[in-house]
Amino acid sequence: xxxxxxxxxxxxxxxxxxxxxxxxxARAFGASSFFYSGDHDGxxxxxxxxxxxxxxxxxxxxxxxxxxxxxxxxxxxxxxxIHLTMxxxxxxxxxxxxxxxLDKDLLVVVGxxxxxxxxxxxxxxxxxxxxxxxxxxxxLSVFLDNLSKGEARKKKHSDxxxxxxxxxxxxQAEANRK
Amino acid sequence: xxxxxxxxxxxxxxxxxxxxxxxxxARAFGASSFFYSGDHDGxxxxxxxxxxxxxxxxxxxxxxxxxxxxxxxxxxxxxxxIHLTMxxxxxxxxxxxxxxxLDKDLLVVVGxxxxxxxxxxxxxxxxxxxxxxxxxxxxLSVFLDNLSKGEARKKKHSDxxxxxxxxxxxxQAEANRK
Lengths: 178, 178
Description:
alpha/beta; Alpha/beta knot; two-stranded antiparallel sheet; 6 helices; globular
């Protein structure tokens, strides 16, 4: 199985931090790839790759010129498209069946400012993380955290250069001696 | 009980969208108040108040000049300070005891760029949502969603001006006739 995230309609100035945080969220909650469309942004890619190098694991960032073709290909190969939108059906109705799909390739799609209508049509599931306005980062993290029942976020990477030493007060990190 | 969020060190240009999304996330996942320190930002407050007015419920946004005094007062009155930081102890170790604290006033604190050391000392709990770098929005949403076992995000507000009509494909919303 593959668990990947696609962020639609990145805008180079306005969305730099949002998209970077989305990618880091994807990585921290168990996805192995992050795709994005909209503006091509070398700066965002570099930030994400820097984090992945320092904190370990395999994480792939890729720009897509034509996300609709990519989504169609993904489906043609038997993969599943999950589009997160406040207009969809609430997660709690889906989560069990989604956990049973983890042997398939899952692509989790999050908007952008104005998600085109065909995304709602192409998606196998339009899933709402509640029906209130909040944040694509919140939607993605809550979705992925629920998908793994809170397990993915606890994963350690043996090839990390630094590790946090969990502590009750203060900040402690150590170089990974492995 | 009160459930509130404090965002430290807001910067007026760089953090406008992050802080707005944090506040909307606080609201959508069950908090009733959002406090922030750093730069005073009327634009952010207006965005949040506009959303709260349209989507209903009571949600209070307030700027704090001296967050440390505010935190000390909160504790003095018997409230609990939960600081979200990747350096803390993982959420899974805390979550049950935190759900048992819901009769108290909980203040969930999230950083900013450089959280001063005294926050780690003042907090009753320094809680990590995993130990990987991701996003304060992800941390807040996963924390609050876990706290309510996924219930808070499903709440509807009877005084909302519009409501989403959950649908399998597409976007449907209706004016609240109540």
